[in-house]
Amino acid sequence: MKRFALLAPLILAAPVIAQDVPPTPLVAPGAAPQARALPGQAGAAVAPAQAPGGPLEVDVTGGISAPMPIAIPFMPAAAIAQTAAGSTDALGRQLAEIVTNDLRNSGLFNPLPPAQLRTVMFPEVQAPTFDYWGGTGAQALVQGYIRANGDGTLTVGCYLFDVSAQTELMRQGFVVSPSDWRRAAHKCADMVYTRLTGEGPYFDSRVVYVSETGPKGNRIKRLSIMDQDGANHRFLTNGQSIVLTPRFSPNQQSIVYMSYLGRVPAIYVYEIGSGRQRLVVQNVATTFAPRFSPDGRWILFSMATGGNTDLYRVPAAGGTPQRLTNSPGIDTGGSYSPDGSRIVFESDRSGGQQLYVMNADGSNQQRISFGGGRYGTPAWSPRGDLIAFTRMSGGFRVGIMSPNGSGEKILTNSWHDEGPSWSPNGRVLIFYRSAQGRSGKADLWSVDLTGVNERRVPTPLDGSDPSWGPIRP
Amino acid sequence: MARLTTTILLAAALVTTAACSKKRPEVLPPAPGEAPASTGGTTGPNDGTVVPGSSEDFKRSVTSDTVNFALDQYDIDGTARGILDSQVGWLQRYPNVRVTIEGHADERGTREYNLALGDRRANAAKNYLVARGVSPTRITTISYGKERPLALGSDEESWAQNRRAVTVVLN
């Protein structure tokens, strides 16, 4: 099967990266003896060369209004070579562009256009021409290189420098299969982002969502997967059945979602490696709103029987569902806390949709939302500190609050924003925005916790129901 | 209300004319290659081809195949009762026919909640039919949430049309 052939390298590549990342410090480009000596020299120089203003760092809230100028010049190749992903010199330019794009999209960095920067020669990668970089206005500098290895893999080196202190802050190397070359750039951007912000990484991650096309009354919906920057896009289903609300398993090897396959709406698990799908709950009742537990052992879902909807959980491998709520209203949209001990969900038991938190066994159900209008689609942050939701009062807007309901903040302002899903580091939300009117259009957007950095996420067709996966191994 | 009485509905059904004033305009003419008999045309010669107990017969015989609901509601109001009563009459004439009731919601709700709401509406219609004597084993339900709007506008009138439960005869 062609699909399997396309997917296989992605699956296999994960352990490759895990095993083959060279320990820091990375062996220098060319591995020349004098190059090896550089890390020690750089380390000795750190303290005296420290900038007077203190260590180089980015404030994740204040940084939005004053993004840090950063330079990411094209990454030279150790030698020009043809690889399965293209020639190394072309890849080196694209690597810099991917890092640039990632950092710019975070809203916290203001990367200088790589094409306008000095051409960095390979021997210069870990010995920057600081005088030049100081003149560009960049406070931080990312240099790197790419090398084609004899076994068909690629090595990408990534170095972060403090321009005014003229010191190296961090370095990492990544060995990837050619099909995963973009991941090396995302890993490099994650290194820079985490080192300078103190926040967790999120660029090397994927998004599953529902690709949409066709007239509003009969939308064709396909399960789709892509990198968080929109690259490596693939359709996983053919659009013959309506598919809704896909969510990654914690190990990212499967997706749980809802399908109208055979005109029986129910939740299925899609195995990304094999393309196989299996029904989760054998039942005549409608099952929907699925989500994995953080340990991957359970699938939380809703089941509608006779007009009443409650929350259940079922072993992810299949089995007998256990009922968690028992109210006469609609209980749906369940989402686990990252430690798996609690569940946030929505219920209209009070008359309209509101958010509730309960223990994972269904006990101690407490309402947490009390603002005007209705609240739905709760999603517990992977950091545990916030719950994202859709608030409906006039417009549909994406907001956040703490798990006890305090500190509510609305992040977006459009006609219909719905269904936020968290980035792996809990700093960014991806959601979908529906257009008002007869077009039926919807597209994917992201917004950070400040609400300032809102941007459209590119997709080949329209998009809805995005779910951000964990950082890749 | 007299228009909705069983007597008149049965009479209407017996003569198999498109007598119901609430019926929407007939479907578009069949595309080239489609079998015209299956679409049940509106003109004289085709009237006789409607098979008693068929989906087409149902649509021609009942007041409407669709009942509507208020915002976020699923109660069967007076208008809906009249429509469902007409469906009961037809279903009692054809006791072997099975139906599915499709529940729908308007776009101004979140996706998963709307799936539950559509299920509620389909079951509200089903429960009414069952209370009027139709066997529950003849009726299945399915919710489409906000996935299949009938009216495509983003306005109150469109949303009112889209909050609905539609009875579909399974042939």
Automatic annotation (TrEMBL), chain A:
UniProt-listed HAMAP family: TolB (MF_00671)
Entries under PANTHER family matching the protein: PROTEIN TOLB, PROTEIN TOLB HOMOLOG
Keyword Signal: yes
Signal peptide per UniProt: 1-18
Described function: Part of the Tol-Pal system, which plays a role in outer membrane invagination during cell division and is important for maintaining outer membrane integrity.
Keywords assigned by UniProt, alphabetized: Cell cycle, Cell division, Periplasm, Signal
GO biological process: cell division; protein import
Protein name in the entry: Tol-Pal system protein TolB
TolB N-terminal domain span: 56-169
Record's subcellular location: Periplasm
Gene3D superfamilies: TolB, C-terminal domain, TolB, N-terminal domain
UniProt record similarity statement: Belongs to the TolB family.
Quaternary state and interactors: The Tol-Pal system is composed of five core proteins: the inner membrane proteins TolA, TolQ and TolR, the periplasmic protein TolB and the outer membrane protein Pal. They form a network linking the inner and outer membranes and the peptidoglycan layer.
UniProt-annotated stretches for the region Disordered: 318-337
Alphabetical list of Pfam families matching this protein: PD40, TolB_N
UniProt main location, coarse: periplasm
CC per GO annotation: periplasmic space
Keyword hit for Signal: yes
TrEMBL record, chain B:
Signal peptide: 1-18
BP terms from Gene Ontology: cell division
Pfam families linked: OmpA
Subcellular location: Cell outer membrane
Residue ranges occupied by any OmpA-like domain in the UniProt entry: 56-171
Keyword Membrane: yes
Principal cellular location given in the protein's record: membrane
Region named Disordered: 24-59
Taxonomy, superkingdom: Bacteria
Entry keyword set: Cell cycle, Cell division, Cell outer membrane, Lipoprotein, Membrane, Palmitate, Signal
Role played: Part of the Tol-Pal system, which plays a role in outer membrane invagination during cell division and is important for maintaining outer membrane integrity.
Name assigned to this protein: Peptidoglycan-associated lipoprotein
